[in-house]
Every structure is written in structure tokens, then in C-alpha cells.
Amino acid sequence: MASPLGSQPIVGEERADRRGAVLAGLLSCTDRIFKPTGLAADQFNRRFYVGIATLTSALVILYWAMEFWNDVGWFTKEDGLVEYGTAAVLFGGGTFAVLSARILFKLDHSYLGFFHLLLAIVFTVGALEEISWGQRIFGWGTPDAISEINIQNETTFHNIKTLETVIYTALSWISIAAIFGTFLRFVLHRQRRLTTADFILPGTITTPLLSLYLIWTLDALDPILRNLPYRTAGSEYGDLLLGLAVVLFGFETWRRALSYRHSSEATVT
């Protein structure tokens, strides 16, 4: 009679086979939906992994160092350096998205062009929310209707009580999807399956930023996590993490769109 323990490796192999089949099906799906680009694959060498490890370590140290550094108000408070920095990188991400959309439209990838135009609108709205749609710069007052429902008495949507949790919950799920996208892109490039999916999937460099943003968001949303002894100080730091991921994605996509355009022009000539 076979031992129960003897069946465990078989179960493990079956699970591995299922995961492999799911991944293979997903990769095959991307091959059908997206077009080959013929561009160079991302390089995953020692320098890349050292860079990812260094970036992750620096972000983690800075993230929790905020808890122990008492004089960070000027840095992380409302109207502080972090908040205006977040607005700047979101505006930058929106600009890169417009530039990428322009190139993709010229290359007859209209659906990708519209996708990046939508991203440009979202990133720009996010940047305007950071500066209260200009209220912080020009100093106009908050309309009474908004003032009554806005936590910070500002002209913003993300500080309205009924919308704040909805917005940050949605951003949490988007971050999870984006992290999965970085993994999918990593696998595609390791297998040299280079397609226009690169104009949607974020690069691996954004993974540490998105992961820490997700931790920050869950920390802000979950009342249990709020009571942990080690938490980052400053309500704006998480927004900056997301903004940096946005501008890195935008810049990387724009550069790849430029390379794709040059490659297409060289093929025509």
C-alpha cells in the first residue's frame, strides 16, 4: 500500500504543471493580441539585479527612517517638498504619455495611442489634485459645497470622505495589477517574446516603488496596521512613490516608442 507521504511530490508536480500551463496560456494570449516589435530585450544581468537591490534597500530605509526622524515636517507635510515633487513627477508622467501616444498613433497603433492619452489625462488629474487644482499656488478659497465634505477644506476629490477610501482602494488594486504586469514583462523578455505589450506593461524597475506604495496604502486603509510600532511618518510619501513609478514607466515607454519608430522607419527605407 502506497504511503500518503509518497503522493505529495505528485501533487506538487501537478500544481507546478498547472501553473506552467496557465503561464504558457497567458504568454500565448499576449502573442495573439500584440504585434512583434523586433526591439532589444531588457537586460537582466548582474548590474540590473544589483541596481534593483540597491534601489529597494534605499527606498525601504527611507520609508521607515521617516518614523525616527522627528524634523521631517517641512519635507513630508502638506505643501512640502514631497507633495510638490509628486505633482512634478505626475506632470512628467503625463507629458511622456502624450509623447508616446503621438508616436503610437503615427505607427497605426491607435488603441495603444488612446490608452496612453487616457493615462496622460489620469496622471495630469493626479498632479492637479496634489496642488488642489491650483488653489495652493493662487490662493483662492474653497467653495462652500466642497468645504463641507472635504477633510482638508480644499478643492480636491481625493480628500472627500466618501471618495477617499474608494480612490485609495482602487489604486491598491491597480498597483497589484501593475506589479503582476512587471512580472509578465520580465518573463516575456526572458523568453525574447518582444511585442507591443511593452507599451502597456511596466518595467521591473517600478516593482520596488509599487510594492512600497501598496504597503503604504494598506497601512493607511487598515486600522490594525495603523497601530503597528513602525510606520512611516508623512502622509505624502506614498503618493511620491506612486508618482516616481508613473514617471519611470512614462519615460521608459517613451524611449521604447522612439526606438520602435526608428526601427519601423529603417525597415521601410
Provide the structure class: mainly alpha
Number of domain modules: 1
Uncertain stretches:
none
Which band does the percent of strand residues land in? under 5%
Question: Could you describe the 3D structure shown?
Answer:
This protein has 269 residues and is an all-alpha fold. It has one domain (44-268). The chain is built from 10 helices and no strands. α8 runs antiparallel to α9 and α9 packs antiparallel against α10 (237-268). The chain is globular, with a radius of gyration of 22 Å.
Topology:
Blueprint: H1 8-33, H2 46-68, H3 73-76, H4 81-106, H5 110-130, H6 135-138, H7 144-147, H8 161-190, H9 207-221, H10 237-268
Throw out a few tags for this protein.
mainly alpha, 0% strand, 69% helix, 269 residues, 10 helices
Brief description of this entry?
This protein has 269 residues and is mostly helical. It has helices spanning 8-33, 46-68, 73-76, 81-106, 110-130, 135-138, 144-147, 161-190, 207-221, 237-268. Helix 4 (81-106) packs antiparallel against helix 5 (110-130).
